[in-house]
Amino acid sequence: MGRIVGIDLGTTNSLVAYLDPQTGTPKCIPGPSGSTLCPSVVSLDPDGSIIVGEPACRRLLTQPERTIYSVKRLMGRGPADVQGELKLFPFRIDPSSNHVIRVQFGDKAFTPPEISSFILRELKNWAEAYFGEVVDRAVITVPAYFNDAQRQATKDAGKLAGVEVLRLVNEPTAAALAYGLHEKQRGKVAVYDLGGGTFDISVLKLISTGEGDIYQVLSTNGDTHLGGDDIDNLLQAFVHEEILQTDRIDFSPHGELAQELRKELIALKHKLSEAESATLRFPLPSGKPFVHEFTRGALEALIRPVVDRTMAPVKQALADAQLKPTEMDEVVLVGGATRTPLIRRTVQEYFDRKPHTELNPDEVVALGAAVQANILDRGVQNMLLLDVTPLSLGIETYGGAVARAISRNSTIPASAQELYTTGVDNQTGIEIHVLQGERELAKDCRSLARFTLRVPPAPAGLPRIEVKFLIDANGILQVSAKDIRTGAEHSIEVQPSYGLADHDIERMLEESIEYAEQDFAARQVIEARTEAESVLSATAKALAHRNASNLSAPERTGIDRSVAALEEAVRGTDYKRIRQQIDELNHATEHLAELLMNSVLETALEGRKIAEV
Amino acid sequence: MDRSTPTTTPPLVCWNCHERTLGTHFCSSCGKVLQVPEHSDYFAMFGLSRRLSIDATALEQRFLQLSWKLHPDNFVNTSPEERQVSLKRSSELNDAYRTLRDPVARVEYLLAIEGARKEGQTKQQAPPELLEEVFELNESLDELREAKASGGDTASLKQRLETAEKNFRGKLTALDAELQNVARAWDQSLASDGGAERDAVKSRLNDLLNRRSYLRNLLLNVQKELL
What we know:
The complex is a heterodimer. Chain A is built from 14 helices and 27 strands. Chain A is 41% helix and 25% strand. The termini of chain A are far apart. Helices cover 62% and strands 2% of the residues of chain B. Chain B is elongated. By secondary structure, chain B is mainly α. The longest helix of chain B has 37 residues, at 155-191. Chain B folds into two domains: 12-101, Helix Hairpins; 128-226. The A-B interface holds A 166-167, 207, 209, 211-212, 214, 216, 375-376, 379-380, 384-386, 410-416, 470-473 and B 61, 64-65, 67-68, 71-74, 76-77, 87-88, 90-92, 94-95, 97-98.
């Protein structure tokens, strides 16, 4: 079995972390650039290769039509759900999409789980390069307020990336795990998590027992479409309007110019978290720059609506946990957007308590995921997480109402049984519609799945079928049915309302193997070439050494021939051949290496002799 | 005869070793986590008899202890079959704790497993002694809806509803106190062997639950209009 990692698959940035067995603390793994943040940006090169992270970011400016960011906003959603997003984000949705969105990249189209799988694969590569070992299992974090379809989409992404997803962990809960380990906190903890695109609030109870520490989530709430992105959108809309007024230039959100401006505005926002004022200077196509001085106060007035929107979920979560703000023992801030001074102030005032910000708000979720990954890898030893389902599960009844089966904030796994029978003689099917949400009418809740319960023909009311709805530890629904009279178990094929069916995933897996091989081969070539270069340069250096003259003529010829063969192999892309030639050269230079070693020893001895004199 | 000894579930055959097992959660012969029995009993899961008074702290501690052993985190590296068995048992534990820690859900559950829960046809019908007040309340609700629709004055109507809401809330509190009294009567009846007495208590509990759910729906409707 390979290594296990924790992954924070974020809207803006994604990270991968592991638990260092030496120190017992979680650590984020850096990528090739040295940064632990992998921008969640994916670009499809015209040559068919997939580019992820920092290099893809640069393509947002040069090839915006082949590059996508914030794909997490599309996970588990249908085309009709995202119409609002399309005004603000340059997503190009394939018009033929029906249940599952397909995003266009030039001439190709991918579903959100596929695009996310490219990001996961990149992180897997980072970790494999770091360990020098295969990574095949992961704990992936999701917003606590993600519904079933969004969770399922995340799990599908993991599968497509070639990792077994051992668990989906809620982001605020993961953060609490990381903080708990770091600070040895006890009591009631509120985690306020404002990320790039999602907001979560979770209330936890940290309990020390004889067996170890239990992290029990009491309640959770949030908004899966509220985050730092919305702050950027407000800023951008404001500046677009200003430029329209003063310079008569209308920005389309799809354009290169808009992307460039967005980049500048994000930098400005970050500056205003430290400084009281900052100036935006943006070159317009007319040649004349747009200049605007922002004070922190003006920025805060602009973004206050976003901050205010977070407070309703906070109040609901506390009400559900039957706690008052002042009853919390600790408050933790998570997510890059919580660096904003206005948010820190608002949270501090509401809870009347200084929030914790000691751990890097960008990294803390990935660190917690690594802690949970370690628990799953080595078995429950001294830490246990008890999480809840964020949304109530219900079944549609007559007249479009919803009968609640499992209430929100129930500890998961959780289950409920419903008994069904037929209304007319010889009825062979019963339609069942499963929903998620807090509203009373089915049309106001999120449709999870519809399925038909098969019933053997019998007089009306005679069949008795018990359907069991079970939410597993990932927050994902399982359905099974049992005929009470015969005891026969039915397996139920549930077609998700907004998700990939199993056969879709199978097909995508086949397609993704193509990419996987491409990725793998490309990496192998790079690594083999790097090694070949160091072997070649070491050989050249050794051959220049005076002791090299002690080589026999056939030995010297053999080395020269091997060097030429390796140089030839390096010009090609067959990594296996490069490796083979490296081995061959290493073999050919064995005697040379010995000669050099002798020389080193001689020098050392000579040195001593001189010293002894 | 004291009937308050823990309820024993019928002997179970382990899914793994196929032996008859005496364990509650784990097989007494092979040690594997046991499947949820056909007729599971939340009280028995916690080693409790079917008494309605439960020490909340002791229940929580037992829940946490069992969670250590039964949570799916413990079974990640086991066979798919064992994972599924443990998943069901772990959800059963959570369902049981959720039910038993809530005094009202606890009564509902007890009546259900005793075969004495009857929601009855009168679910939408007001209890006779409340008929007059409910009639008035519904009238006020209609007037408020009309006033809202026509943009008329709602302040005085809202005030009337608020008074009525307070009144009904008081009734709910009284009913909950009554429910606790009858719950105590149930616990006492367990010590005696009078089946008839126990049946009478169950029927009173059932009646109280029906009234309670009626009152709660009524209050929810009022709250919705007052928002």
